[in-house]
Amino acid sequence: MTNFEKVKDIILDMGFVISHEDLKEELVVIDDDERGIKNLVIDCEDPILILEQVIIPMTQDSLESYKRLLQINRTLVHGAFVLDEGGTTLLFRDTLQIENLDRNELEGSIDALSLALAEYAGELVSFARS
């Protein structure tokens, strides 16, 4: 069984529906509206698994908003809020080792995203307002 197949099996076992799959790139996209999961990309880049979800466009370009994001990151159990290369989009990103990956680890990362979105949604949306 390949790492990609292992990851897909874990995702399906957790009850997620795969909305998109790219076999060549070894990535899947999942959604779970109840948990705030929307187009979460799960990408096998051996030896790591990358989880990444676009959160919002960043229209505020202030030291205070970036400072607050760093403070929020300190409270997250897994992953972090990051900016894309252009600094215009806020993403959630986490990485895990594939070699010993198990369901609890992957589930913990996805739960951390869901919890962070529930807890900080209001603040995150405020970063997108001009």
Description:
The chain has 130 residues and is of the alpha+beta class. 38% of the residues lie in helices and 34% in strands. The chain has a six-stranded antiparallel beta sheet. It starts with a helix and ends with a helix.
Task: Summarize the model shown.
The protein is of the alpha+beta class. The chain contains three helices and six strands; from the N terminus they run H-E-E-E-E-H-E-E-H. The chain has a single domain (3-128), classed as Yope Regulator, Chain: A.
The count of domains is 1
What is the total tally of β strands? 6
Helix percentage: 25-40%
- SS class: alpha+beta
Features:
single chain, 130 residues, alpha+beta
How is the secondary structure organized here?
Layout (H helix, E strand, L loop, with lengths): L2 H11 L3 E6 L4 E6 L4 E9 L2 E10 L5 H13 L4 E4 L5 E9 L5 H26 L2
Antiparallel strand pairs: 1-2, 2-3, 3-4, 4-6, 5-6
